[in-house]
Structure formats: C-alpha cells, structure tokens
Specification:
Radius of gyration: 21 Å
Order of helices and strands: HHHHHEEHHHHHHHHHHHH
Oligomer: single chain
Strand order of the largest sheet: 1-2
Shape: globular
Number of strands: 2
Helix content: over 70%
Distance between the termini: 31 Å
Strand content: under 5%
Number of helices: 17
Largest sheet: 2 strands, antiparallel
Structural class: mainly alpha
C-alpha cells in the first residue's frame, strides 16, 4: 500500500475545513449577495500552497499540524481577498478559468465581499493561544500592509518610464514573497519553534517567493504553450515591466534598443509578431540566461536559510523541501 504523504493528508483536511468555512465563520448568511462570492472564490481551487506551507512548517516541530487548520485557512482567506480586489483593479475577466467575482456579480459587491473576507481572516486567527495571539496578529498586520504596498508599487510602475532591477525585486518581494514567508514563519511560531528558526523559515519563504515570481516572468515568455495554460507572451503584449523587460531596457543599445523601443511604442500591432520580435531581442541580449541566473540566486539563498533550521521531524523537513523544489521545476 502506498503511504500517503503528510502534505496530501493535510491538503485533504485543509480542503474539508475550507468547504466548512461558511459554518465556521458565518459566510453563508444574508444578504446572499455579500457571502456567496466568498464561497465562490474559495471554491475556484488553487494549489493552497500558502496554508500548506504553514501546516508543514508547524510539522517540523510538532506532530499535530491539524491543530492550526484555522490559522492556515486564515492565510488562504486573506490571499483570496487580495485576489478578489486585485481582479477589480486589473479589470480581469477570469480567475482560474472562471469568471471573476466582479464580472459574475459587480465591482461594488466584490469590494464588500473582499472586505468581509479580511474580517473573517482575523476571526480565524482568534483560535491562536492567547500567549501567541499578539505576535501572530502583529506579523499578520505587517504582512497585510506590505502586500498592499507591493500592489500599489506594481500599479505605480505602469506609469514609470523606467524601473530598476532593485525596485522590481522589492515590489515582488512585497506583493508576493512576504505572504509565503509569513506562512512558514507563522506555522513555526505556532508550533513553539525558536524565533531564530521562525525567522530563517521566513527568509526561506521570502527568497523562494522572489524566485517564483522570476520563474513566472520567464514562463510567460518561454513556456510551452500546451503546458502553460494561458497565452505565452502576454507580458510582452502588454509591455509589463517584468525582470526580463527591465534587463533588456538596461542592456540594449544601438539597433537592438531601437527595435525594442519600436515595439514598446506601437499601439496597433500583430500580437504574434510583437512577441517574436521582442523574444528575438531577448535572445540577442541573453535575457533568458540572466533571468535564470537571478532566479537560481534567490532559490539558493532560500535553501541556505532552510538548511540552517533546527527541526525535530525529518519527514516533514524533507517533504517541505521536495514540494518547494517541485514548484521550482514546474512548467506552468
């Protein structure tokens, strides 16, 4: 008989817990228009990576991670709250292949439902032991503010002529990586880990999170269309200031710079032609290799932190490491 991994078992328990959230935190009441969108977005799926990381980090030190399902679910509820509001700001029609909340209902309902999700996330955190609650709320608040800062910077960048590599990395650190770091740090602290170990796990998550976003930037341009699940080259089409474009603008000169700027300034164009032209510029400048090098720098920095923690459960340690490595090598 094949042994079920800790991760698979915890994911099953987490999904059951999330399905029962309307009972746990009262998201099934009236008015329906306020609460139905919450159930809807939480049921759209997703890998549940953030709450799973929290549960596995807890498992590094104690054998009862199901004890913190409520706090882990709080991270997932908060994450989906940010997605609901981000979709409004981006005017995105689809989320995970389905209509976004503001498209299915309307923007006002999506804003209000998102607000309630944030409130409910805090309600889930109240299951924390009183001696730890203040620290957990403080860390959660800090992260929540940073995620908003990252989103604002991302929107600001749309109006900037140039964005530096350091500015971009800081933006993705705030918008994406800090929540991964919090997930790991919170799980460790709830299990009674030392503050130094919890900090190393936070740093691990932060570095891995930056690497993940660089991987996403790379996949958007160079992924296999059949595996990627969305249009390859979407960032090129929209002139999104990713790491690849930032480095290309920094390094291009002469005819290469002229070609790149020509495509960036076109308002009417054939999408496939633009994607191929910009990819050619990237090839001339070695942008793919530079992105992979930077991506692996952050992955290695993360694992350097991870390997320094003082864990108690070897099987959880290896599973958490393997899951992270699988995400690093993903093709979509």
């Amino acid at each position: 008989m094949t042994k079920i991994s800790h991760a698979d078992a915890l994911l099953g328990k987490l999904e059951t817990f999330i399905q029962q959230l309307p009972e746990h935190i009262g998201t099934g009441g009236a008015p329906q228009e306020l609460y139905e969108p919450i159930t809807y977005i939480l049921n759209l799926g997703g890998k549940r990576i953030r709450p799973l990381l929290s549960l596995l980090a807890y498992g590094l030190y104690r054998n009862d991670p199901e004890k913190i399902l409520s706090q882990s679910a709080a991270i997932e509820v908060f994450h989906n709250f940010t997605l609901m509001h981000d979709d409004i700001m981006d005017d995105a029609p689809l989320r995970r292949g389905q209509a976004t909340v503001h498209e299915k209902w309307n923007s006002s309902t999506a804003i209000l439902s998102g607000d309630v999700m944030l409130v409910k996330a805090y309600e889930l955190l109240l299951e924390t032991e009183p001696t730890l609650l203040k620290d957990i709320i403080h860390l959660f608040n800090k992260t929540a503010a940073e995620v908003c800062e990252g989103q604002q910077l991302d929107m600001n960048f749309e109006g900037y002529e140039t964005v530096s590599e350091a500015e971009y990395v800081n933006m993705i650190r705030l918008k994406t990586a800090v929540l991964l770091g919090l997930s790991l740090q919170m799980g460790a602290l709830l299990a009674g880990a030392s503050k130094s170990d919890a900090q190393r796990l936070y740093d691990f998550g932060m570095n891995i999170g930056v690497g993940f976003q660089l991987k996403d930037d790379l996949l958007d341009v160079f992924a296999d269309q059949a595996k990627f699940g969305k249009q390859v080259g979407g960032d090129i089409i929209s002139n999104k200031k990713t790491f690849l474009l930032i480095k290309a603008l920094e390094l291009a000169n002469g005819e290469t710079a002229e070609k790149l700027n020509y495509w960036l300034n076109q308002t009417t164009f054939d999408k496939a032609e633009k994607v191929e032209a910009v990819k050619q510029v990237y090839a001339e400048l070695g942008i793919k290799s530079l992105t992979e090098e930077k991506m692996h720098f952050y992955f290695q920095a993360g694992f350097d932190q991870y390997d320094q923690i003082h864990f108690k459960n070897e099987d959880y340690f290896q599973e958490l490491k393997q899951i992270t490595q699988d995400l690093i090598h993903r093709e979509k």
